[in-house]
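Deliverable D2.4 — example input (structure tokens):
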């Protein structure tokens, strides 16, 4: 609660980052809790108010991001939003806010950006003669079903374009709000055009509230796994991230719960702490688990070649050393006991239909 934490006085209930740490990479000025960010309705006397979530509308000129990473099973992705209100303290996407002069700390989870023209940009891209379809990922940077999706429905509009053009799509989310689009996802699944990956970090609701304060509770995510599976949709559960010394003891329990709910495949990613995420996470440990900080960070360094983060391809997503090997072995044993294979998700690309743009002369023929 604001004003009760003497180490990080900006700490607020319902927010993940303990502070609004600045990016030293871009020489940003220190950012205090600005009055413009506070909801006047929450002010009581001189007490600090809750941090308000602000959404800025932006209209990008392109919507697909391309990558050549050997660690990723896709080469293109879409992010309907920038920033994420879920507030997961470990989120590797936090540093992207620094590119826009904002803090990867509290700014990342309270100053959000929405792209309402995403679906139209996607149709324009798909209509180009040289566009070749392959699996497109949604939610690789920020969650497509974070709370503001209920208002803006941008992710749903994107899925409508996917169904219209019969384009393959994979969704990654921590939210049970994905069930709202079960109708579209089920139709895509019938054509072997979609799969959904739901991240489950912990089964303990108290731990989840501290790690990912505005993400749906673990039980709701597992309920979403079950509902989507019952609708004929391939659901993958990603134990991501595995936080050493905090959640790593739950690997077997998460696998068992996911399989009981109908998950068809499971994977894990050890926690990554790029750029500003590392000091934010250490602040979080000092705030919530001070007695574990040295142990947790020691294990992190052992998995990251002696550093807090390892950005190298091939090792950044899996970790290295005995601790990473142990996690991988435990997951493999748990999956084998549950009867799961490491089968990859294979989606069709041969059904793709290039859309017609309303002002395109091709419509005359």
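Example output (designed residues):
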């Amino acid at each position: 609660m604001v004003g009760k934490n003497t180490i990080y006085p900006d700490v607020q209930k319902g927010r993940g980052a303990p502070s609004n740490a600045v990016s030293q990479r871009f020489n940003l000025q220190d950012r205090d809790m600005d009055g413009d960010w506070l909801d006047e309705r929450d002010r009581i006397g001189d007490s600090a108010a809750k941090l308000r979530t602000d959404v800025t509308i932006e209209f990008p000129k392109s919507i697909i991001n391309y990558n050549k990473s050997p660690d990723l099973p896709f080469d293109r992705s879409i992010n309907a939003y920038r920033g994420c209100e879920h507030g997961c303290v470990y989120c590797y996407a936090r540093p992207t806010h620094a590119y826009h002069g904002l803090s990867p700390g509290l700014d990342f989870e309270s100053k959000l950006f929405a792209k309402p023209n995403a679906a139209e940009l996607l149709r324009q891209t798909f209509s180009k003669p040289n566009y070749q379809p392959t699996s497109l990922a949604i939610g690789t940077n920020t969650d497509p079903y974070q709370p503001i999706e209920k208002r803006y429905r941008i992710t749903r509009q994107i899925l409508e374009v996917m169904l219209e053009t019969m384009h393959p799509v994979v969704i990654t989310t921590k939210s049970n709000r994905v069930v709202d689009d079960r109708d579209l996802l089920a139709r895509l699944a019938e054509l072997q055009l979609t799969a959904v990956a739901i991240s489950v970090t912990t089964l303990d609701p108290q731990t989840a509230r501290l790690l990912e304060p505005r993400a749906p509770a673990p039980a709701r995510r597992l309920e979403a796994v079950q509902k989507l599976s019952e609708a004929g949709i391939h659901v993958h559960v990603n134990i991501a991230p595995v936080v050493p010394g905090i959640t790593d003891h739950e690997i077997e329990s998460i696998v068992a719960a996911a399989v009981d709910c109908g998950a068809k495949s499971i994977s894990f990613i050890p926690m990554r702490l790029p750029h500003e995420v590392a000091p934010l996470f250490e602040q979080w440990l000092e705030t919530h688990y001070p007695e574990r900080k040295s142990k947790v960070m020691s294990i992190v360094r052992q998995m990251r070649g002696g550093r807090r983060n390892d950005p190298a391809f091939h090792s950044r997503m899996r970790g290295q050393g005995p601790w990473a090997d142990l996690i991988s072995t435990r997951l493999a044993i748990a999956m084998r006991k549950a009867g799961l294979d490491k089968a990859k998700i294979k989606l069709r690309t041969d059904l793709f239909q290039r859309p017609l743009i309303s002002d395109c002369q091709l419509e005359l023929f």
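Strands lie at 54-57, 64-66, 76-78, 81-82, 111-114, 136-138, 169-173, 194-199, 234-242, 265-270.
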